[in-house]
Amino acid sequence: MTDEPAVSTPPAAALNLVAAAPEATALLDPSTVLVAVADPVRYAILRELARGTPLPVKELARRVGRAPDAPSKHLRVLRDARILSIVRSAGEDGRKQIHELPALFRSRDAAGKPLADLGAVVLRLG
Question: What local confidence, expressed as pLDDT, does residue 21 receive?
Fold first, then answer.
């Protein structure tokens, strides 16, 4: 028996969370996710994409206050971690990369603020 207090995690309902689909968390490696979201620029990118609108690289760069070519490395890290995906809009020639946070990972708290449920971590992005 140890003298350390037991640590319990309250259920999602107690935290006023609306969890993402359970299968979402099985798709991601926890250590890769934690490394990917630890960077402030990547967190800012996720905050922008958590609103549900897919955005092109240049618009993401503008919104996070970076040069147009600066977010490319960060977007690759998030894609490699399987957090983001690339979507293409109709009529595009395929060269323009438009990124989204898949709906599978998006959820909202009780106040309606966006969350990203990535299994190992739930990011409050609102």
Answer: 56
